[in-house]
Description:
Layout: H1 3-14, H2 17-28, H3 39-50, E1 57-60, H4 70-85, E2 89-94, H5 104-116, E3 124-126, H6 131-143, E4 147-150, H7 154-161, H8 178-189, E5 199-202, E6 217-221, E7 235-237, H9 239-249, E8 254-258, H10 265-274, E9 282-286, E10 290-291, H11 298-306, H12 321-327, H13 331-341, E11 349-350, H14 352-366, E12 369-370, E13 372-373, E14 376-381, E15 390-395, E16 405-410, E17 413-417, E18 437-440, E19 445-453, E20 459-467, E21 484-485, E22 487-489, E23 494-501, E24 527-534, H15 536-541, E25 544-547, E26 551-555, E27 566-572, H16 576-579
Parallel strand pairs: 1-2, 2-3, 8-9, 10-11, 12-25, 14-20, 18-21, 23-27
Antiparallel strand pairs: 4-5, 5-6, 6-7, 13-24, 14-17, 15-16, 17-22, 18-19, 19-20, 23-24, 25-26, 26-27
The structure holds adenosine-5'-triphosphate and magnesium ion.
Amino acid sequence: MDKCQIRLQKHANNFSQSEAIFEMSQHSNSDNNPKTSHFIRNIVIADLDSGKHQSIKTRFPPEPNGFLHIGHAKAICLNFGLAAEFSGLTNLRFDDTNPCKEEEAYARAIEKDVRWLGFEWDELRHASDYFPDFYNFAVELIETGKAYVEELSAEEMREYRGTLTTAGRPSPWRERPLEESLDLFQRMRVGEFEDGRFVLRAKIDMASPNIKLRDPTIYRIRNIAHQRTGDEWHIYPMYDFAHCISDALEGITHSLCTLEFEDHRPLYDWVLDNVSVKAHPQQIEFARLNLDYTVMSKRRLKMLVDEGLVDGWDDPRMPTLAAMRRRGYPPAAIRNFSEVIGVTKSESIIPLGVLENEVRNELNTTAPRAMAVLDPLKVVLLNFPEGETEWFEAARHPQDESMGTRRIPITREIYIERGDFMEEPVRKYFRLKPGGEVRLRNAFIIKFVDLIKDDNGEVIEVHCELDPQTRSGMPESSRRVKGTIHWVSAEHGVPTEVRLYDRLFNVENPLADKDRDFREFINPDCLSKVTAMVEPSFIEAGGFCQFERVGYFCHDAQDSTKEKPVLNRTVSLRDSWAKRGNK
Ligand code: ATP
Ligand code: MG
């Protein structure tokens, strides 16, 4: 018996089935992140224990009208993660019941993003697969007197519907003979009427305290071709009618959605109770993810794209998964983030820093190291022979030997970061300064000699001497000085475009002020480009890395070429916003 079987055996003896699976999953969780329990997981455990379900099935149901964002990642990780944990299945279903807005290109992008996050669906479905079923169930409702064809205008319907404090009034068409409704509905389907002429309404309760139950519209006329079914249909079902039936037809056991659907739940249940579909999935609502300094609706993100305020859906400043991929966020960091923020019933705004920390945690273990100088200042090593190159060998990763080593060239002229030299140092400044010494990372200690300024008084060159006794293997190789700085050989460094990103918005909640448009709060400094000098080993290797003391960077998959590399800063080493006192 292998270890896994022994564990299963032990659990079979001592625990219920679901507990055994739960324990198992803790061991097989690839992200090394212990699963924290939450109310939806508890419901699943209870349903498996009670025998209500033998196994679970969830679904992720995006509308293909834009790219997925980090909020969707929460729903993806929850649906796919929960099912996987309990050996269940998850469908990817395109909620494509709204023909004018949806595009196939979005659907392809969504598939790519789900897979990139590390998940694989059981079945790929489209709500439009069920158009004939929706139609038949609607006919059933008419035949049992539970739906009628309405001909009040949208405005009249609103007026009849009543308010939160007053009951609605029945429409004069509520008691329309069912044969007439059937006939009209059939003719609506084949395109006899213009848009808006009629709708089909469920006959529930015009006095219900829940306005959603006041005879909701379940079908409307749209004389428009659908991307998958062409002009076969001239009527399209509403979300509340289509979604629950789709769930039931696919054998979904737990239908997870965000809190704004809480008052739709009685309608979800009503439809399933009143049509002859067999299964009855349970709708469970959880709080959506909100991040600070971000907007998170596809509609608003699309405005930014369409108006050219960003450079496409995958512009690295966007909160989309495509942007995060391009920027170098590892999918494991996003999965860990989803775990860390948890699943609750109360809305909150999560600081962006929480996500960035997960990115740092992940990259700290996976990113090879290199050196780059973002704001170069020339340093001449006066006692280093002109025209010569010395090579140092350095680990690619300080903790992970398996990454091997890299060779770093040094020459008489090098670049250091402008911020690592101060002519008139502040107190406790331990980097290079007049009269001072500093260690060049991976190389040796250098000592200040003098400097050259341009006509404006700006330092353009610093002259130093290296201490040969501090090279690796020499007697003073471990002599300590207070500062260590990074550097790049002026001759070998590769001038490289580096894109530095900051938050897309400069206020915590760009939607908070109802009188102002969120686009007014775009951070004018959210992108800056610099020409950095980069260690050649990284440019040759491609991919991603940590520039020591600077941050995490990756080659831009879109714009980077061998001849002209372009790098994105994935995330800085520390949260610079925390320093600014902005949280
Ligand atoms: P958007 O307003 O951005 O278009 P949506 O909810 O309309 O969002 P859908 O494509 O319908 O987008 O969403 C697919 C699934 O993702 C739904 O189950 C939805 O509840 C979930 N989802 C969307 N946004 C978030 C979020 N911010 N946090 C958690 N889940 C979300
Ligand atoms: Mg939507």
